[in-house]
Amino acid sequence: MNKHFLGDTAVLLGRSLRHIARSPDTIITTVITPIALLLLFVYVLGGAIQAGAGSYVNYLLPGILIITIASGISYTAYRLFLDLQGGIFERFQSMPIARAAVLWAHVLTSLVATVISVVVVVLVALAMGFRSGASVLDWLAVAGILVLFTLALTWLAVIPGLTASSVDGASAFAYPLIFLPFISSAFVPTSSMPGPVRAFAENQPVTSIVNTLRALFTGHPVGTGIWIALAWCAGLLVVAFTFAGITYRRRIS
Amino acid sequence: MLAGMSTPPVTDRADHPAIRVRGLEKSFKDLKVLRGVDVDVARGSIFALLGSNGAGKTTLVRILSTLLKADGGRAEVNGFDVASRGAEVRESISLTGQFAAVDEILTGRENLTMVARLRHLKDAGAIADRLLRRFSLTEAGARRVATYSGGMRRRLDIAMSLVGDPPVVFLDEPTTGLDPEARLEVWSAVKELAAAGTTVLLTTQYLDEAEHLADRIAILHEGRILVHGTLDELKRLLPPAKVEYVEKQPTLEDVFLSLVGTAANGEQR
């Protein structure tokens, strides 16, 4: 590892964090969809949804947090793409810096922005009546899973950020990710779905992650589900990181 | 790294030319962009690479600044091979690309301190303030770059390239898209650079720019250097000048500059 890696990453992280601080609209647009969905499902549709005992907002929040993360990371691709377009990426690459620092700064920025967005959404949910009996340890587990999931999706977002030919292309890849929770246990239990849809829903990553988060929030035992959720996150992270690295090396040589 | 703020991080290797290119080749798929380019640039000189759009100027600059790998031939910058000693090359150079590579959301001063920190220099703030003063950007320094004019952006861009005093500076079409005044500002900045001992390789499609600035000029056409030499040497390639009597009309540039006249035209010609 280059001896300047940490220092250079810190300088570049400071730069991107200033961007976020100065244009907080990236946070606002990230949280607006999840909050709208939260309001819509709790106050309009929720009354007709049978999702077990307890208030529906408690049932809904884990899936909404996944949607928040998925819409937040599209800004990673967007910011990376703008750097490439503007020429500042080439300026950094022609300077005596640790080249990996450029990507890591974007990834860490995405993490910080997503954490802020998730906190905002949780606060809104609390105002809407979300209550959790989770212990400190449970909350730490929730935070750990969300961070791992964010990192995995962020490294995935790096790929279109490096390869897209337009701003729209750079951020469009996030839409399917935002829709994935709809075909999962995020909004309604999978048991109400017809065969093939149910099979897909029960075997895609969002369901295992959402179920684990829900169990942690309600203080129920997580069972083996947490290992499946962690395996999905870690697996996705390794694959995305590897391909992002390959894409980056191709891009800078 | 313990490099002080005004000493270059890598000492000049005085026994080498600043830039030495031999038989450089580069293709993009079937398109041969460089077909055996040879270039030598002496230390402390201004070298202009002249050519029309698509001649391969930017490709050559990108190879020299380690952003692109050549398919064949050799290139050395400050005595370091660009292919095998990329890190040392990057310590020795800075690149000002065709489009001002500045961060719009940061202020001018923040842009400069960021580059100084990335070059691992001490006292980044003082370096930034000095460069702001040198490029008449002190007052604008605290403003976001998004509010700057094209000329100010270019000046900031060049100032960012001078952080840490790299011995070799590449300027890729530094005045394309600038108004005449901003152009003269850039020209005087380039002249100052060379006067201070920095080697400058600039690409341009403007003949008068090469004529005004360069010690040596090379014409790149369809991936080959057609001719290179001093301005006088190039002029001698054509039949000797005829003597004609022509009424000296002011050029449009003269008219424009005398009407809008600012400090910039004081040091012109």
Report on this structure.
- Chain A: Belongs to the ABC-2 integral membrane protein family.
- Chain A: Residues 25-251 form the ABC transmembrane type-2 domain.
- Chain A: This is Transport permease protein.
- Chain A: The chain crosses the membrane at residues 27-53, 59-81, 102-127, 139-158, 170-188, 226-248.
- Chain A is an all-alpha fold.
- Chain A has helices at 5-22, 25-45, 56-86, 88-93, 100-127, 136-163, 167-172, 174-179, 195-202, 205-218, 225-252.
- The radius of gyration of chain A is 19 Å and the shape is elongated.
- The mean pLDDT of chain A is 87.
- Chain B has helices at residues 57-64, 86-92, 108-118, 124-134, 150-162, 180-195, 207-213, 231-235, 252-260, and strands at residues 19-28, 31-41, 46-50, 72-77, 80-81, 93-96, 168-172, 199-204, 216-221, 224-229.
- In chain B, a hairpin with a 2-residue loop joins β4 (72-77) and β5.
- The radius of gyration of chain B is 19 Å and the shape is globular.
- Classes of the chains: A mainly alpha (253), B alpha/beta (269).
- The interface between A and B is medium-sized, with 24 and 31 residues.
Name the helicity range of chain B.
25-40%
Task: Work out the number of β strands of chain B.
Answer: 10
pLDDT below 50 for ≥5 consecutive residues: which ranges of chain B?
A: 1-9, 263-269
Instruction: Tell me the β content of chain B.
Output: 15-25%
Q: What class do helices, strands and sheet pairing of chain B give? A: alpha/beta
- How far apart are the first and last residues' alpha carbons of chain B, in Å? 42 Å
Query: Spans of chain A of 5+ residues with little confidence (pLDDT < 50)?
Result: none
The run of helices and strands of chain B is: EEEHEEHEHHHEHEHEEHH
The interface involving the most residues is between:
A-B, 24 and 31 residues
Q: Helical stretch count of chain B?
A: 9
Query: How big is the Rg of chain A?
Result: 19 Å
Percentage of β-strand residues of chain A = under 5%
- Strand order within the widest beta sheet of chain B: 6-7-8-3-9-10
Organism (chain A): Paractinoplanes rhizophilus
InterPro entries (chain A): ABC2_TM (IPR013525), ABC2_TM_bact-type (IPR047817), ABC_2_transport (IPR000412), Nod_factor_ABC_transporter (IPR051784)
Pfam family, one (chain A): ABC2_membrane
Transmembrane segments (chain A): 27-53, 59-81, 102-127, 139-158, 170-188, 226-248
